[in-house]
């Protein structure tokens, strides 16, 4: 079983990354192999709705010369996908949404290769906006036909300065419980890693 966590923050080792690493550490302790993917320093151009992916159905985006395809290939190969973002003016970062928009378009165009994978969103903010951003990311998982477990609270936490999120005890515990539920779901939904995608 393999899990990836995609960090949509432009800051390396910031609060969003800390939350994702908390999840990955919990998953790793349950025997899941893990990988953190930072969008910081990468270019992900926005979807242009050209519909080429619907025409060719080759799981390739018509937009070339950016960092989308290597990350999307990792999404296709993963069993568990986590997506994390800080709140920027009440929503997720443009980079993470550009990635998810293009991945979602290709997923719908090509028979749902992300369907029935497991995952969910993780969100952090200084004061407010987490619920809106959490819902924004959660809607993407729902449209991708992925399976999202709950936790002891929504997967949100508070923090502004780097590392400040570690002071949100409930937020950290929520991430740990979320990851435990991801691992439990993976063990029970995919015994022997026999995940069956939805029929196109």
Give a verbal description of the structure.
This protein is α/β, with parallel strands linked by helices. It has a single domain, classed as 3-Layer(aba) Sandwich (Rossmann fold), CATH 3.40.50. Helices cover 40% and strands 15% of the residues. The protein is built from 6 helices and 5 strands, in the order βαβααβαβαβα. The protein has helices at 15-29, 52-56, 68-77, 94-109, 130-143, 169-189, and strands at residues 2-7, 33-38, 80-86, 118-125, 156-158. The chain has a 5-stranded parallel β-sheet, with helices on both faces. Strand 4, helix 5 (130-143) and strand 5 (156-158) form a beta-alpha-beta unit. The longest helix is centred in the last third of the chain and has 21 residues, at 169-189. The chain starts with a strand and ends in an 11-residue tail after the last helix.
């Amino acid at each position: 079983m393999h899990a990836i966590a995609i960090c949509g923050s432009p800051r390396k080792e910031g609060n969003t990354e800390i939350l994702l690493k908390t999840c990955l550490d919990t998953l790793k302790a349950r025997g899941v192999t893990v990988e953190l993917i930072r969008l910081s320093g990468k270019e992900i151009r926005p979807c242009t709705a050209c519909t080429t992916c619907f025409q060719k159905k080759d799981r390739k985006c018509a937009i070339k010369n950016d960092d989308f395809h290597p990350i999307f290939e990792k999404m296709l190969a993963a069993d568990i996908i986590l997506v994390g973002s800080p709140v920027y003016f009440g929503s997720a970062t443009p980079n993470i949404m550009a990635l998810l928009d293009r991945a979602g378009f290709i997923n719908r165009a090509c028979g749902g290769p992300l369907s029935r994978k497991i995952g969910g969103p993780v969100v952090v903010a200084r004061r407010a906006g987490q619920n809106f951003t959490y819902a924004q990311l959660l809607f993407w998982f729902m449209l991708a036909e992925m399976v999202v477990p709950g936790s002891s609270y929504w997967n949100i936490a508070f923090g502004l300065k780097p590392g400040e999120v570690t002071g949100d005890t409930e937020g950290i515990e929520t991430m740990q419980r979320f990851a435990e539920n991801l691992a439990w779901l993976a063990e029970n939904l995919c015994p022997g890693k026999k995940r069956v995608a939805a029929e196109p």
